[in-house]
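Chapter summary example.
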Amino acid sequence: MKQVHVAVGVVRRNNTFFICKRADHQHQGGKWEFPGGKVEPGESVEEALDRELHEEIGIRVLNSSELIEIAHEYPDKRVLLSVLFVNEFSAEPFGKEGQLHKWVALNELRNIDFPEANAAIVDAILLNR
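The structure predicted for these 129 residues follows.
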């Protein structure tokens, strides 16, 4: 089974969090997610996160801290999610690839339609806010 290592950014500003909606044709399409992407060979998680967030939402990561690491198995693939709080960033994030995006309040996180693997991220955010 294919395994994918993904760097995930929990971009936060005060008690709000930036999320994006996955395109319908993508794995887990139509669900909301914390932005990020694949860690390429030879990249650190931090390097991958900065690159992916710049490509996806137009920001540069200035300061981040580890939140949680999650191994999750979907029917068609395994994912290893290395999740970091993005504490400081340059610019205002937006859907650079045309994806829907929004800031959501801490108390709204449990009501968002995230992929199954993200439930543990939401739990970790609520514990570590």
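To summarize the output: DSSP finds two helices and seven strands in the chain.
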